[in-house]
Amino acid sequence: MDYFDYEGAAQEAGISADQLAQIVVMMEREFPHDPMMCELHVLRACMAVRDGSVAIQRILGPSIAAPKR
After folding, report:
1. pTM of the entire structure?
2. Where are the domains of the chain?
């Protein structure tokens, strides 16, 4: 983390360390040559979860959306 305090926002949102790591990987793939844009989008995702605009399951995709029965 060099540009934005996304870890603080993730804690406020109740995002686990594993979930945060998954978001970081997603954004690193999206912005492989721009670490500032990567961190900005990680921060925005965390803030959206914190503010109730989106559920963490929606960000991470269907793989964690619902447990298998």
Report:
1. 0.85
2. 6-60
